[in-house]
Amino acid sequence: MLKNIQTFLACEAEYEDAEIVLFGVPFDGTTSFRPGTRFGPSAIRNESFGIETYSPYCDKDMTEYDFFDGGDLDLPFGNTERVLDMIQEYTAQILNDGKRFVMLGGEHLITLGAVRAVVERYPDVHIIHLDAHTDLRTDYLGETLSHSTVIKQVWNLVGDGRIHQFGIRSGEKYEFAFAKNHTNLHKYDLKGFSETINQLKDKPLYFTLDLDVLDPSVFCGTGTPEGGGISFKELMEAVLQLHQLNIVGCDINELSPHYDQSGSSTAIACKITREILLQITK
Ligand SMILES: [Mn+2]
Fold first, then answer.
1. Of 28, 67, 182, 235, which one is least surrounded by beta carbons within 10 A?
2. Residue 234 near residue 215, CB atoms below 8 Å
3. What separation in Å is there between the alpha carbon of 225 and the centre of ligand 1?
4. Helical segments of the chain, H only
């Protein structure tokens, strides 16, 4: 008899045996426009029964590896600091146990909690950030903790030259000016992605994927859709290079499943999650 617990596709190892830990953070407490990313992790898990464990892209099968699905964190909604603390504690434990993680959002602010833990263990970590938005605001309506300030908050931890942004096509003028001096920002698409990968091969790396980097024509299930994004194929080509890096942690965020009644945004998030899990296995 099997336990009646819904896990992501073939993530059925016990924690002790797992190389990689998947978990969800169903938080959308600072979402500025359309909420709903709190439903992302459960939608991705549910959808995963519709896809294969085998990836023809990398010729690996999920069943060949030990993935543990830790479920979703049980969050005190409305207490952003406490949520970030919980993410930090959870990810620090995974890192201390010699494992790596894939965190499913949820809104993008959750990245900050994970990066806080990663920086403590790997002070020289670099960040690769795919997004439509700069996320470099100093504050949003006076709040310094927001899904639109998250990369600025990460910069406060890691400093200049450590953040590599791709696909960016929206933000305030001062954010782009800030990026010129402090981050490696690539506008609109993934040009330069392979070169960045080559430069960062020896470094510990955190990968954060805001799915709204995709064009809304292929991914409309998100809170702040932004025209002019990349195609699914372009994103997949980038993801398939991740095995070249030493990824210590990553996240996939901003799926808001109910804005896409066709379900294809969730299916896309699900497929990308499978590929990222397979890419970061050793
Ligand atoms: Mn975004």
1. 182
2. no
3. 8
4. 40-47, 80-96, 110-121, 150-158, 173-182, 193-199, 232-239, 264-279
Report yes or no on whether pTM surpasses 0.85.
yes
Radius of gyration, CA atoms only, the chain: 17
- For residue 87, the CA-to-ligand 1 centroid distance in Å is 20
Lowest mean pLDDT among 30-34, 73-77, 105-109, 186-190: 30-34
- State in Å: Cα 224 to ligand 1 middle: 7
Q: How far is the CA of 130 from the centre of ligand 1 (A)?
A: 8
pLDDT band with cut points at 50, 70 and 90 for residue 282: confident
Question: Distance, CA 210 to ligand 1 centroid (Å)?
Answer: 5
Q: Name the residue with tokens 């310094």.
A: 144
Determine the distance separating the centroid of ligand 1 and the alpha carbon of 63, expressed in angstroms. 32
pLDDT tens, position by position, 168-193: 999 999 999 999 999 999 999 999 99
pLDDT in tens, 40-56: 999 999 999 999 999 99
